[in-house]
Design brief:
The protein is of the alpha/beta class. Strands 1, 2, 3, 4, 5, 6, 7, 16, 17, 18 and 19 form an eleven-stranded mixed sheet that branches. A five-stranded mixed sheet has the order 22-23-24-26-28. A four-stranded antiparallel sheet has the order 9-10-14-13, with no helix packed on it. Strand 11 and strand 12 form a beta hairpin. The C terminus is likely disordered.
Length: 587
């Protein structure tokens, strides 16, 4: 028996089929990322030769490697802890820059950006903001993706940055002088921002009077005007007499002579009498009340940022060139004042700032000068030729350009340099997956802790405590084959009030149930299906484009076949509407 299209069941099926979204090739194909370990290279790490102040920060991190794998590696430690994320990804402008492959197929760009945004959202704190810097080529698509990942109600604003201080006279059509920065919150209800100090120029002109304390204000009539509450009948409690300067009692009267109402009640009139001004007109005394300019003297951020205030591309290139005169200029650096404004709005001293497309390192340099902790990720070789030399100049106090003066920067602090560990598993000559030969016991234990959700914290007292998930739950990693005698000893040491996950090469017991406080897993067998092993490149390059998934059977096809022909036509129309926002081609 067929299902009627207009029946409740038919309507529900059709409603479930339709969804307003941006679609592209590979959208549903999400990689199973391996949470790599970090390896510090102390030869690239750097810190000041002496402490400059009590607020010096040394626990900043610079990560050299694929930024998607790096973000995955950061999840365990930084989830929910990053107050401000600023990313300036390749714009997909199909232009060639020396330091970036910026020519990407739309579907690939969207796929890899969406995967990064999923992880970045998890890293963001509940009161944090993410800033995504783009131009007109992808900002409209990225907004749709962010609406899906963060939720449309978490959209805060679009900031327009005037990136150019002069027009391009050779432009084919329009001379583009701006970029767009999308701002999203993880939780709009708890998100916080910092405002800017206001000065007299920020106070609107209608605050045209000044009191004895030099506070600016304007006045409005105390009598209620307009609306349903401006009559004595509607608000009888607001009809009362107020003593005028000559001792007479003044009652609220409308222009037609009928009884009106005051805006304030008797108690407020008494308590705030100093805000009332009297005007003696031809119809007698009339009370007005003062409305002062904001006492906080702060103004909210605005959505248009002019180059005179935050710098332009020309400004930023000059900043980098001054620091690194011998290096080839970085193609698209951002001015320090631009990042200073982003970081000021989003954070307070000591908060964590993340940039996973570090580029020339402006985000970290500015965050460092402003007393914020920072994490940056960069894969390009300019990490060593541009970024690290720039940070060293900042730490040594030699960089007195950009926002140094405004933040009274004298140098100090430091950072640690990390690379990503190799994949835990590799194929042997026969195509079998084995533990990577580059892994020593400590690296293996740390990697297994990440894979199993434990904090790596090897104990100096108990050899079997490589990490913990709670105060009583531990993990032990070894490539040995454990005998029954060894497991009995381990079980006795763990005791009845604690539990232990054992990841080992093999074990020789018949009944695992004999050890209720132990959980046994064989490696690498136990982790084979957890990740994509041996994949080091998730970079924004065409060669990384995932294969299009095989089309899945249409769950509504059987229903469609049971419908009359006129109803099938209606179904096809609905399908066309559902794909309205699909990309027309994948180029």
């Amino acid at each position: 028996m067929g299902i009627e299209l207009n029946s409740p069941t038919g309507r529900n099926l059709m409603a479930r089929k339709q969804k307003l979204e941006l679609t592209w090739i590979g959208k549903e194909t999400r990689p199973k990322l391996e949470p790599r370990i970090f390896l510090e290279d102390s030869g690239w790490s750097y810190h000041a030769s002496h402490r400059v102040g009590d607020s010096d920060l040394f626990d900043n991190r610079l990560i050299f490697g694929d930024n998607l794998l790096a973000l995955k590696a950061l999840e365990q430690e930084f989830s929910g802890k990053v107050k401000c994320i600023y990313i300036d990804p390749p714009f997909n402008t199909q232009q060639a820059f020396e330091h970036y492959d910026d020519c990407l197929e739309n579907s690939l760009w969207l796929t890899l950006m969406a995967e990064r945004l999923h992880i970045l959202r998890g890293l963001l704190s509940e009161d944090g903001l993410i800033w995504i810097h783009l131009d007109d080529n992808q900002v409209h698509r990225c907004k749709c993706v962010c609406d899906e990942i963060f939720g449309p109600d978490q959209f805060i604003s679009s900031v327009i940055w005037e990136k150019s201080d002069s027009p391009r006279m050779d432009a084919d059509f329009f001379s583009s002088r701006h970029d767009t920065i999308l701002v999203f919150a993880k939780n709009r209800d708890t998100a916080t921002i910092n405002r800017f100090p206001a000065d007299d120029d920020d106070i609107p002109e209608h605050y045209n009077r000044t009191d004895d304390s030099n506070r600016r204000y304007y006045t409005k009539p105390l009598r209620a005007m307009g609306g349903q509450g401006d009559t004595r009948k509607a608000r009888p409690n607001l009809y009362f007499g107020i003593e005028a300067p000559d001792g007479s009692m003044i009652y609220p009267k409308k222009q037609d002579g009928t009884d009106g109402a005051w805006r304030w009640g008797e108690e407020k009139v008494k308590n705030e009498a100093d805000r009332i001004e009297w005007v003696d007109g031809r119809n007698g005394w009339t009370p007005y009340y003062r409305i002062y300019a904001e006492n906080r003297r702060e103004r909210p951020p605005e959505t248009i940022w002019f180059h005179e205030d935050v710098g332009s591309n020309r400004t930023s290139k000059a900043e980098v060139k001054k620091l690194l005169p011998k290096e080839v200029a970085f193609g698209t650096p951002k001015p320090e004042k631009l990042l200073e404004r982003v970081i000021h709005i989003s954070t307070n001293p000591g908060d964590c700032v993340l940039d996973s497309f570090a580029g020339s390192g402006t985000t970290g340099a500015v965050a460092h000068k402003m007393g914020r902790r920072w994490v940056m990720v960069e894969l390009g070789e300019h990490c060593h030729t541009h970024l690290i030399p720039r940070l060293r100049e900042v730490i040594d106090g030699n960089d007195q350009g950009g926002v140094s003066s405004a933040n009274q920067w004298k140098g100090g602090g430091g950072f640690r340099y990390y690379t990503l560990g190799p994949s835990l598993l590799e194929e042997d000559e026969f195509g079998n997956w084995i533990i990577n030969k580059k892994y020593n016991p400590e690296m293996l234990a740390e990697a297994m802790c990440k894979l199993e959700g434990f904090t790596y914290a090897p104990s100096t007292d108990f050899y079997w405590q490589h990490g913990h998930s709670t105060e009583t739950d531990f993990i032990y990693v070894t490539t040995q084959t454990l005998t029954r005698e060894q497991l009995v000893k381990l079980s006795d040491e763990v005791g009845p009030n604690r539990s232990l996950l054992i990841c080992c090469g093999a074990y020789r017991i018949r009944k695992v149930e004999d050890f209720p406080n132990l959980t046994l897993k064989k490696i690498p067998l136990a982790v084979m299906s957890k990740c994509e092993w041996g994949k080091d490149d998730y970079s924004l390059e065409i060669k990384a484009l995932p294969d299009a998934p095989e089309p899945e059977p249409d769950e509504f096809e059987e229903v469609l076949q049971d419908l009359p022909k006129n109803k099938r036509k209606a179904r096809k129309v609905l399908d066309q509407q559902a794909s309205l926002f699909a990309l027309e081609d994948a180029e």
